[in-house]
Amino acid sequence: MDITAADLHVFEAVSAFSLVVLGTVILRKKSILREEDAALFAKLLTTAALPAFIFFQLSTHPVSSRQFLMVLAMIVTGILSMGAAWFAGTALRFDRQTIGALMLTSSFGSTALVGYPLIQFSFPNNPDALTDAILLSELGVGLPIFILGPAVAMHFGEDSEAAGTEKKVLTEYFRSPIFFAVLFGLLIAPFQIPTDNWFLAPFYEALSIIGSAVAALACLILGLQLKLKSLKGIWLLFIISAFIQMGFQPWVAHVQANLYNLGAEQTQVLSLISAMPAAVLGSVFATHHRCASDTTSALIMMHLLLAIALVPLTFAVLNML
Length: 321
Hints:
By secondary structure, the protein is mainly α. 76% of the residues lie in helices and 0% in strands. Helix 3 packs antiparallel against helix 11 (235-259).
């Protein structure tokens, strides 16, 4: 896929995704859907659609060593971005909780909720791109954010009585259907088991049907949760976090892709995934540890709105380098 086609696909993907989210917001305004429905859709996404989607992709596409280089690049990118946020917050003399909020919204992005659908739309009928995105999301973003997110929120927040939370969060992740989907998908893939025989074909077809709901569920969840929150007093924070999350971070990923001699398509997938808006999990960690949760939530919501324009722009600029 040439650069012009890639840029166009990403722009179309973000536009299509945004229209579905907007449609959900309208349905919420008309009380056809309710904000409380987001919890049910989120449960369906994390316990059924995502595990099916992940297992289907990983079990049918063996992982290459180059894909693990992509994961390494993603982890390094997130940690450097978190460090950049800490440096900026310290240099500007933000208070302790604000620095924590800035770090949570400037490092690891919303790769599952926003990234998967965008990759599906941007790289149509390309299972290798989807496999790359899953590995980046689950190993390059998922594990680090479940380890570092609670640690940052606890260290910079007010909740000093939450000892052991990191262990609890990690335990829950390792027991989740998503983790088992990743584990068994990676274990089965090398055997290249044929999936078109009479016994396995219905099973994999069922997985495909369930997994196809990922994009729709993600749009529904975002549309139901999306709220315009006041940025009064936090404009500077918003500018810094957005620049690091959707500007600095994809640039760092792009530089590493060149250093590791990744292919053009893998570089594009890595750049796009690393440009995702702040992960919604940041708000969960901030709330639990009383680390400027209102500020964190406001930044995350504004990231989602800004991503409509900034993600395609960032992707196009990086493709010109």
